[in-house]
Amino acid sequence: MKRLLILIFAVAMLAPRLRADEGMWIPMLIGKNIDDMRKNGFKLTAEDLYSLNGNSLKDAIVLFGRGCTGELISNQGLLITNYHCGYSPIQALSSVEHDYLSNGFWAANKSEELPCQGLSVKFLVRMEDVTERVLREVPRGSAESVRLKLVNKASQELIDAVQKEGVVYTAQVKPLYYGNQYYLYVYQEFTDVRLVGTPPESIGKFGGDTDNWVWPRHTGDFSMFRIYANAKNEPADYSPSNVPYTPKRFLKISTQEVKENDFTLVYGFPGTTRQFITSDAVDLLVQQSNQHKINLRNIRLSIFDRYMSQNDTIRIRYASKHASVANAWKKWIGETIGLNRLNAAALKREQETMFQSWAESNSERRSRYAALLPAMHSLHQQLTPLSLVYDYRQEAINAVEMLQLASRLDALVYKSLNPATKADEMKRLRERAKRSVRQFYKDYSFNVDVEVCAAMLSTYAAQIPTEFHPDVLMQVEQHCKTPDDWMRFAVELYSQSVFADTLGIMTLLSDFDSTTAKHLLTDPVYRLHRDFEAMFEPKVVRPYYGIQDSLQLLYRGYVAGLMELHSDKNFYPDANLTLRITYGRVKGFEPKDGVVYAPFTTLDGVAEKAAMLDVSDYRVPARLLELHKNKDYGPYAVNGKIPVAFIAANHTTGGNSGSPILNAEGHLIGLNFDRCWESTMSDVMYDPNYCRNISLDIRYVLFIIDKYAQAGYLLSEMEIVN
User: Fold this and answer.
1) Catalytic choice (74, 84, 416, 497)
2) Is 74 a catalytic residue?
3) What does the pLDDT look like over 37-61, one tens digit per residue?
4) How is the chain split into domains, by residue range?
5) Catalytic: which of 221, 674, 683, 697?
6) Active site residue 84
7) Are the CB atoms for 273 and 574 separated by under 8 Å?
8) Residue 221 annotated to the active site
9) Could you tell me if 682 and 344 are in contact, meaning their C-beta atoms sit under 8 angstroms apart?
10) CA 430 to CA 416: how far, in whole Å?
11) pLDDT grade, residue 20 (50/70/90)?
12) Whole-prediction pTM value?
């Protein structure tokens, strides 16, 4: 009886922590959720969301760039996403003479739209469960290395078959549930994408780092692009003869009032979650990894801030870099606070205790599952010291931009030293290196990087055990005892390097051969890069990834056990930058005692922050304040106020930036752009009392386009419903 009670308690404790608002669901399988969605107010069908044979709402959604979401809002290829998603291409198009960051940009017509070099968008054509085909040739119990080779072989065969279909598609096979399932994703990629319009930074990033990850929020976080295609409506490289793309589907826009408890749906490409990790992994994250990464980014941000505040050229060059560094920095702080508040590691340990009891309750389960958690615990003990050095490699050494540049030349150097390398391959590598170097120096400051280098090397030397110090660092440490010593070393290092001279490095690359490569090997910056990598590779990288591979195998078994234990539950896989659906209601929340957050903000809050808080993050254009003062709102006000943002209990993460927020009829009512700071632990553990996504109200977008930017001609492309 005692054992039976333990098992009953185990099942109760281990039941997946799913709530009505939790989950990142596979669109192809959304029919499993449709009854629950309808109970929450959804009025469409599963076929409306994802259709195998016809067009559906998924055909209006794109993977924007390398990790955001965008959506089509007209039949002329007009696309909207977040301002921060478009920030990098906007910054790349900006200069002191054409400062689109400070002033914004609005093309008066299609001929004025600006091509964005290197920017692409992908439409998901279809997804398919290919688990059986991927694992068909994998013997049960095979070694992980054997399994991986067979999985890769089968996956490549599936990708090759897609590429023979006669249409230019790209494809990838991705694992779900740590490799218990595999899905094929087929995409159509467009590379001619042009900037149509963007508000100034003071609107698109209103609140800046001060408000990042924070509610209440008043950020006009949107930018607009257009997809171009050839005359056959197919993907094509940029050409003046290309025409606006005609999509299979675009989203209708609703200007109806958004109310508390309204149904909302997010359709996008969430990046990474880790809901199944064990208590040891949570401890490593909270007690070590986040703390050190936060500190290292603190140092970098303070250096960036000082230089950017003093020089407009550096401000523009480092705008995107600063935003990227600050975003993860603040997220890690909130994530740590949230996981500690939930006592997440202790909750995980309770669940693991119950899982172990279930696994040991009969011989078959004992043979399959009982050894998993003890083995994972042992591996995490080995991983912890390596993880510290790995984090410092990523966040300290690789944060030095000159060392990043040196690493980009590795392939060219070693191919040059190989007599078997063909001339055409050398030419290709030289041209790629020259393009990379030109792009690097466009957004680079020698003074900023020298100071970052000094700070990162000194911090690494102080925090990392000496067994992980390369010989060159050991030599430098003998002479560098103070911050000034490290700064003098960094200045001397850079001044003696060919990398410090743009003309010098470009001349070097123009006729790069084995003799040049041997010369570069003696360059002090390149030698520092290579000495670090020569130490990292055998002592850190290989064992670190070896342990991660072993953990991957054990997690596969652990998740399979959870799914067996709860075979009646509807599990969702971790996010992996593939298209997902999440849904929930518009809701406020209470982040701490005595504080209650309403779910809506308005333009009144923008004016209040601008008037009361004299900080750069809250400075807004005079024209916006004038529109507010005169209540010149056009048709976009609700009860005499312009709505700006709202929060809802949707389960989102990075990659969901720019995702459409749809109402019960499938109409666009907002753009997802953030989570509340109290929600950032949702990548590991979801809490319905705190987890809220932050969305830009589409009526604020229309107001900015029409009344502020006076670009109302764009509205004529859209289908706006009341």
Assistant:
1) 84
2) no
3) 999 999 999 999 999 889 999 999 9
4) 57-250, 279-558
5) 221
6) yes
7) yes
8) yes
9) no
10) 10
11) low
12) 0.89
